[in-house]
DNA sequence: CTGAAAGCGCTTACAG
DNA sequence: CTGAAAGCGCTTACAG
């Protein structure tokens, strides 16, 4: 026993033997003990009696292999890196929840790094993770530019490349849910809040909207399309966009927002402008974050299966890690959204009662300024 | 150059030399190169010319030390473990954001593990993190039972022990903010929603409330005290508790909830019961999560500086790691809450003023007198 | 069925 | 100012 270390402040401190000590204790070679403990006993036809003895001793002496040493030698660290834009943000953490669930069941640990849309960090992190010997990387809403010598799974990225497997939402179905819903409620003048330029989903989702709008015969008025600014936190970008939208003074009866945060921001701005939701303007969100249900009015929204996307990302990555294959130019794995109908949408108002009828102009600018 | 590996699918794959190759390339020993690269050049009086050459070559050849090998040898991994109850939950991720900010600036990476209040995981994780050779652990709202041979910082734990430094909120100040606010608004019949039994903060916060209530002469009616159930997600526990509270049929004019989620749940239940917030019942939350501001009505709440608590936790842990000291029986580090007054609180309803024979107006006492 | 020895890629006494 | 050699704690050819 190595017991010359640490002035024990409590006898509950765990003393751990290393492999050498364990082997000596058992009167076996490190090789044999290692084989049993790393689960390759079968391949070496180790007698089950020996196997049992080793297992029992390991448990009794509380042996835990030094993962560093094991990884260094075996070239597999059972560690993956997860890149997210922002750790303290609902989207990433929902995905992270799913990732963790799968990873930890397989004995994998993960490093989280968040780049906050800083391009220098986006460039550096894959390299830093590599020097930490991760077996693979999951990029959540983050684009990795260089090809890496390890498997990569991207959640909601849309740069298809051979070395990366993409997990994406079925954007067409998502757009169909929302636009079909609004169309049935007789909305024709629909405003769109596009996502931030840095979000991987922005373009794909917008393309899907355009395509579905064409199918449904909805005309998209460019003056009713506005994009979230890159800066600002929480509901702020949605507020800013909606204020700008109102200033254009073009009539609309519904808004399809890029995400719930933007939808919630939009609703607060509309309310401040004296416009009722959903009586005068309907609002559809995206994601179904927690606040969507508790918002007033509760948000009608397209739900992304974020946890599920995380789970699929993780299990796909594990598969890739456990295989020799090099080329992963498969089709993206596409998950399905669901539609959650709550109270932020309603029938399109009659022209006379609409917020933008000529009589009732929405310009209550005093409320909108100064924020 | 080791270039026999990997059928390069793209020439952008990063080839990295190891220390040996770098040393050979420079005509120097691994020892010298290692010294320069690990920053101990000064201690060994390495000529600045040599130093510059090494640095230049390392940059040019894109040398990155294998962190596994370095850690195995040096016994310091520049990695910490962070234990949280739940990854996809606002409280933990806010703290995590602060932790990350500090850690990554120092070149530290972190593993996240979430135990979801499972006692088996709570017991195992410290050990598993240890076998991953972490230099220290931050436990967020999680109690670590055994003494560990590495530094530990606990955010919002209240088991004071020598080997652990605690980061906590000033619960007395928090209670004072809330109760003082309600008292001034003439509330006397206040209901309290206590936290889940598994939350480290539940007891400390409740004690502070009792103490401050005594100071302010507020009587706590046991029939107006209810505790959040351990199961249920989001606003569900708050809803359940409030429903049970209403069933007791004891009059109250205000609720002080354990957290914002519970407060939001309470408000939805009150609304469904036809009780107006804040006209008939005022509600005060705790935490100031994102939804607090966007809720309807926007929540009056005690804000915890969660990011800051994370930052302090991380920098404290780094200090502990970089020192030899063994005994950390310091006082806990106490951070200050702030009070955010929004629209979920208002004057106690008229009926209650009539019921109590006192004056119609609250005493405008100066801020937070006493301590 | 089991073991002795080499080696993963670094850092660190020890030596000069 | 610089280097040769040992060693961190494992796994893995190689051998029998």
UniProtKB/TrEMBL annotation, chains A, B:
Positions of region (Disordered): 350-371
UniProt KW keywords: DNA-binding, Transcription, Transcription regulation
Pfam families in the record: LacI, Peripla_BP_3
GO-annotated molecular function: DNA-binding transcription factor activity; transcription cis-regulatory region binding
Composition skew (Basic and acidic residues), residue ranges: 360-371
Occurrences of domain HTH lacI-type (ranges): 17-74
Domain of life: Bacteria
PANTHER family: HTH-TYPE TRANSCRIPTIONAL REGULATOR GALS (PTHR30146:SF109), LACI-RELATED TRANSCRIPTIONAL REPRESSOR (PTHR30146)
Protein name (record): LacI family DNA-binding transcriptional regulator
Organism expressing this protein natively: Alloacidobacterium dinghuense
Taxonomic lineage: Bacteria, Pseudomonadati, Acidobacteriota, Terriglobia, Terriglobales
